[in-house]
């Protein structure tokens, strides 16, 4: 079982354009709204890939779309009612450039008592899970060390559960100190953690190796159209991205996490796990409808992937 902890669910309002220009009037050619958030996305991707998955966390008012989307995908969920209103994020997709511009609202505040109950729920779920994924923003005012504290609690109370951290900024840096099983920063998040720009593959590799020194057991860096790089105690590998028609980029990194865990749950090594993550990310990029991704796309793409040792 894979459990994701969602403390920042949202409604994604996706708008598509045949060419998007900032500062100009842009005509929407297609739009849709759906429940989302990184933890929700990972659970949806895992379920689509055939992994048992569930989502626990908190949900402010107006978040019925989140519950509906999970239910339609067959993902069990358990949310504690939270104050405030579920935030709405805009995803502006330029079809010509195959690029997404994101406009994200801040997360509502959540009282400490509610966050404590959410931590209790996550710890209980971890006792019954092979993986616990901590990902996404935290509620406004939540301490930066919250994820780190959650990681330490799971290590103590559910030692058989492997924890995954996908966060940014101080939440990521502090979380590393709690020794997560796997971290999956993107290039921007890795550069922020390293404290300097990363312009070459060698620099990216060195920064990723620094994440192991800081406490992570495995680090996978998603590089968008350039692919992904992974390191663990056995070595390092690089996988180029697959060339697919891009219908969305939103959630590709979350799909990569699910693909990685699908392989790791089956005992795969680093290079095979990286291939699975790459195929899952590409399968997500093919989708822009009701499904988060299609298993048939993943199965067709997996043989096309490669991961080379570095």
From TrEMBL:
Pfam family, one: PfkB
Keyword tags: ATP-binding, Kinase, Lactose metabolism, Nucleotide-binding, Transferase
Reaction catalysed by this enzyme: D-tagatofuranose 6-phosphate + ATP = D-tagatofuranose 1,6-bisphosphate + ADP + H(+)
Database matches in Gene3D superfamilies: 3.40.1190.20
GO annotation, biological process: lactose metabolic process
Domain Carbohydrate kinase PfkB residue range list: 12-291
Signal peptide coordinates: none
UniProt similarity note: Belongs to the carbohydrate kinase PfkB family. LacC subfamily. Belongs to the carbohydrate kinase pfkB family.
Name this protein carries in UniProt: Tagatose-6-phosphate kinase
């Amino acid at each position: 079982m894979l459990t994701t902890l969602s403390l920042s669910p949202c409604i994604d309002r996706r708008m598509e354009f045949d060419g998007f220009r900032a500062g100009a009037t842009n005509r929407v050619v297609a739009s849709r709204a759906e429940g989302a958030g990184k933890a929700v996305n990972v659970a949806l991707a895992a379920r689509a890939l055939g992994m048992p998955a569930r989502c626990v966390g908190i949900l402010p008012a107006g978040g019925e779309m989140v519950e509906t989307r999970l239910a339609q995908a067959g993902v069990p969920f358990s949310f504690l009612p939270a104050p405030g209103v579920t935030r709405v994020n805009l995803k502006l997709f330029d079809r010509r450039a195959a690029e997404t511009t994101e406009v994200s609202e801040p997360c509502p505040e959540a009282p400490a008592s509610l966050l404590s109950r959410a931590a209790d729920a996550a710890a209980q779920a971890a006792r019954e899970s092979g993986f616990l994924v901590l990902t996404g923003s935290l509620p406004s005012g939540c301490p930066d060390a919250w994820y780190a504290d959650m990681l330490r609690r799971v290590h103590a109370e559910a030692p058989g559960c492997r924890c995954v951290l996908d966060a940014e900024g101080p939440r990521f840096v502090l979380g590393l100190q709690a020794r997560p099983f796997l971290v999956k920063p993107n290039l921007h998040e890795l550069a922020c953690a390293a404290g300097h720009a990363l312009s070459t593959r060698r620099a990216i590799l060195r920064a990723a190796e620094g994440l192991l020194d800081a406490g992570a057991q495995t680090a996978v860096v998603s590089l968008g159209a350039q692919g992904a790089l992974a390191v663990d105690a056995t070595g390092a590998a690089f996988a180029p991205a697959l060339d697919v028609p891009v219908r969305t980029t939103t959630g590709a990194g979350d799909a990569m996490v699910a693909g990685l865990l699908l392989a790791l749950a089956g005992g795969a090594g680093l290079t095979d796990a990286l291939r699975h993550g790459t195929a899952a990310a590409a399968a997500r990029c093919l989708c822009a409808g009701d499904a988060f991704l299609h298993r048939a796309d993943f199965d067709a793409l997996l043989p096309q992937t490669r991961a080379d040792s570095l």
